[in-house]
Design brief:
Length: about 180
């Protein structure tokens, strides 16, 4: 049988083009490739943009929250924060309630950079959504939030079953 003929009889039923996460990955990959080119003249990379955008919306956030929202692992976030801090775009701040926690905030220069880049990012986002029917972007956001909640619940129930905290179950180190 040729390699492209499809699954053999009795194989697991799977259609890649009908798999939601396949399409999410394709869309994010295409957007990130285009976004990288648009950010380059502004001296930013995609992970840096994600951190700036999150901190613009939620200033003084803990590093762990930024890592989660920006979908960055500890090493990538640390390097990204180092670059942004060295460029004067963000500041690391102690958390007065918990000195183990590092909070991040945009500097004035960081806010200005975000505001300069936002129209470029917004234009790319609008072009990605242009073919969707009216109301679909809001529905898509709601559906993706529910998917995230489902994944969080799945993680929590799995952790409860084996008695380990959720962070330990997923093997993640908490970034503070």
């Amino acid at each position: 049988m040729p390699a492209h003929a499809g699954p053999a009889a009795g194989a697991v039923p799977f259609a890649l083009d009908r798999h939601v996460f396949y399409w999410i990955t394709r869309v994010i990959g295409a957007r990130d490739r285009q976004l990288a080119g648009k950010l380059r003249p502004h001296g930013l990379r995609v992970p840096e943009w994600r951190v700036l955008a999150f901190l613009f919306s939620l200033p003084h956030s803990a590093m762990g929250d930024v890592a989660d929202a920006a979908a960055l692992d500890h090493t990538t976030l640390s390097r990204t924060v180092d670059r942004l801090a060295a460029s004067g775009l963000l500041a690391r701040l102690p958390d007065p309630a918990d000195l183990r926690v590092t909070r991040l905030a945009l500097t004035e220069k960081g806010r200005a950079r975000f505001e300069a880049v936002w129209p470029v990012v917004d234009e790319l986002s609008r072009s990605a959504l242009a073919l969707l029917p009216a109301g679909a972007p809001d529905l898509l956001c709601a559906a993706l939030r529910m998917m995230r909640e489902g994944l969080d619940r799945s993680l929590e129930s799995g952790a409860a079953q084996d008695g380990r905290p959720a962070a330990a179950r997923r093997g993640a180190r908490r970034i503070r």
